[in-house]
Amino acid sequence: MKTIKRIILSTIALSMVLLAAGCASTESSVSAPVAKVKTPHTEISVGGGQVQTAAQVGPQVLKLVDITATAPDIVNEGETFANTVKVVARDSIAWVVIRMTVPDGLEYVKSVPEATKNGDILTWKYPSMEANEAQSVTVHLKPAKQGSYKPCVSVEAVPQVCYVVKVVKPKISITKTGPATAMLNDYVDYTVIVKNEGDGVAKDVVVYDDIPSGLAHDSGKTKLEIKVGELAPQQEKSMTVRLKAVERGEHTNVAKVQTSNAGESQDDATTVVKLEDFTVEKTGMAEQYLSKNADYTITVKNVGDTTLNNVKVIDTAPPETQVVEAKGAIATTSTTATWMIDSLKPDAEETLGLLLTSQTPGTHKNTVAVNANGKVKNADADTLWKGFAAVLIEVIDTDDPLQIDEVTTYIIRVTNQGTKEDKNIHIWAEFSKEVVPVSVSGEIPGKVDGLKVDFEPYKVLEAKQSITYKILAKGAVPGDGRVKVYLKGDLLDTPVVEEESTHVY
Q1: Burial class (CB in 10 A: 0-12, 13-18, 19+), 58
Q2: What is the pTM of this model?
Q3: Tens digits of residue pLDDT in 365-391
Q4: Contact (CB, 8 A) for 387 and 332
Q5: Is the four-CA dihedral 131, 137, 143, 144 of positive or negative sign?
Q6: How far does CA 320 lie from the centroid of its chain?
Q7: Domains, the chain
Q8: What beta strand segments (E) does 213-333 contain?
Q9: pLDDT at 251 over 70
């Protein structure tokens, strides 16, 4: 078997190359195909014929392909034989067509790959071939009679130049995050991240933030616009939106991003706004007498949505008062009482009690401070501490019993044992017939009128002060004589009566 390589030559001005080669082991090379050019060919002899080879034709300008044809030198009549054609591209080519012409006397049996058959022409087509790429076809033929035959193969192709155009696509995304809960009137920070998820530049990127009614921006706007501009592939930009929680409840903040070439996207963050708050009230006696106890009640109530822990309550007594009792307190001094409430759930309240006393008259303010989670609230209650007049009257006679016309002195002592003055102290005395008054003496002037003695009112009897009245009387009628002394003041609506008896014989 012989293998013969043939090279096709062409000129630059032409647009197509035609390569023809004998099927009997022929190879050809083609460059810059611009015209169909006849190639040398090999004849196949059936039954002992001689093989003939033609000379190379045409000037060599540009080689596009190499072509090799392989076939047996001699075959027997009626025996199927294989012809193999291999085409190797020297450069990038397109519209590649391999054709084989089957001469009379040879019968086409089959080919691999399958050829398109049109009469005596077999055709194989390839859209394109890259440099050094090879395509092979094998054709099985069968001679009908003795002779010499010339199967011819041609290749058509055009040079092609390929270049890469990369098509990219930007894609915008947005992510919004924020706290799940927030306290009423606190500021809430939301993070917005816009990202170009694609491989092209995103243009005219603008972020819009729709603010719900339960949240507020310091600018007063209900929709914010943030111009980002361009984002390179995989580039992202983060921004913070600070809003104030102005209403309790669940509020969803929506952020949107729009572009001119990368689409749009949106995301949201939901925050539950809660109230963390409490109230403290203090009530107590509006008035109390000195040295007595005044009762105070402290009420702490959770009016918020969260549980308050470790609530500290400190009551501070005014300096004019002293703490008598503070039930449940963890610490008590003469001027302070401290309680600790471990936990106070929403709508729950705690009531605490306190007793104070005072020796100093006047209005004194008692204040309580409550600290819950760092928030402090105060409440107070005023009490008017006042003194009271406790006037004591004592009556004694210096001589008892008396004889007729014998005299005795009644000594009347009035003492204010209380803590407050009493005014307009008025003393008068009424005698029975057994003893009759004669005259008066002592600190306060008075007069005798028959069996009655009347002293002038004493304007102010201070606390702990005493005054003394004296009445000189004599025995008049035998019997059990009686003298009644009456005391009245501004603080005594009903007179106090003190009675003394003297026996006359």
Answers
A1: middle
A2: 0.54
A3: 999 999 998 899 999 999 999 888 889
A4: no
A5: negative
A6: 50
A7: 2-159 (2.60.40.290), 172-274 (2.60.40.10), 278-386 (2.60.40.1530), 391-504 (2.60.40.10)
A8: 215-216, 223-231, 236-245, 249-258, 264-274, 278-284, 287-289, 293-302, 308-316, 321-325, 331-332
A9: yes
